[in-house]
Amino acid sequence: MIIAGLFLxxxxxxxxxxxxxxxxHSLVAPKVTKFSLLKNPTQxxxxxxxxxxxxxxxxxxxxxxxxxxxxxxxxxxxxAGTFLMxxxxxxxxxxxxxxxxxxxxxxxxxxxxxxxxxxxxxxDLGKAYDLAFECLS
Length: 137
Fold this sequence. Notes:
Blueprint: E1 2-9, E2 12-20, E3 25-28, E4 34-36, H1 43-59, E5 64-68, H2 80-92, E6 96-100, H3 102-112, H4 123-134
Parallel strand pairs: 1-5, 5-6
Antiparallel strand pairs: 1-2, 2-3, 2-4
Helix pairs in contact: 1-2
């Protein structure tokens, strides 16, 4: 199964795609790392964003997309950009979508840190990697 972790932050989405199992997995399409949506998008901008995401999904044979569960209130709550991207993907994404809470990622990171050998060094790409890793079997 090929799984893409999409980390939503501000008006950008960082993407890491993995294949395999937790014990033995590898990166797919390491060059594609980011898509963005304008801060005040038009309908055409949102359509172009979704087209980019769906092109990435189809060209890499992605079976499942995993998004970070956004905080809705309090400090660190997701802004308008993440809300727009999440809604657009829920409505038009060509793959199954799953959500993972940040607390689940922290627990998994402690439990399976030794298995995350190909985790990117960049913080946001590392979070996208963790999202995809969480749904590997």
